[in-house]
Design brief:
mainly alpha; disordered N terminus; disordered C terminus
Length: 222
Amino acid sequence: MAQTLWRLRLYSVGDPASHLTETAMKLLNAINNLSILRKVVPAVLLVILLVTGNGFLAYSRLDSINNAARNLNGKWLTAIRHLTDIRHALSEERRKVNGHLLAPTPEEKTTRERDIRALHDAIATSWTAYLPTIAGPDEERLANEVYAAFERYKGQLPSVLALSNAGHPMTARTLLLGEAEPDYIKAKEAIDRVLAFNQNGARGRPKHCMTRHKRGFWSGRC
């Protein structure tokens, strides 16, 4: 009799494991009783949430890439393009000076002089466009070297052309090679150094421009 009462008391209190199993069964039955739509909707919402999160992350990364590309195109590549134009125009100007010395008629010499003036204007335009992209003291120093050498070279040309117009091409060539040519070479070498500076920068880091005004030719900002 006592044993029977003990078993009844144990059953009435309940076994914890049995209670847990019963709860799990009720939960499974409740899930089974849900409609297919109610089962699918949470899964669809979870997928949408994951896709949205991945999309936001991808957009953030693309925005960073676009910013870097805009900086690259707006600073380094702009500087490289204008410096390349200056270098080509300077080389073409040197060929026009040679053509002036060799021109047999005054008309041809006048044409060469007009071409030289046009190239001077093209160089000035490209230089003005390049100046706002200059960044840091290193590039400032290199740009000053280009400017100084080109100004010295340009200052020698009127005397060379005057001798050529006066019918003294050999004397003009002597002056060209002895006085103007060294500055022409220095100007091209200085441009090459600035180009290398910008090409290396385009591969490595953003270009933060500086705003200064020096020797009457420095102006603008990025």
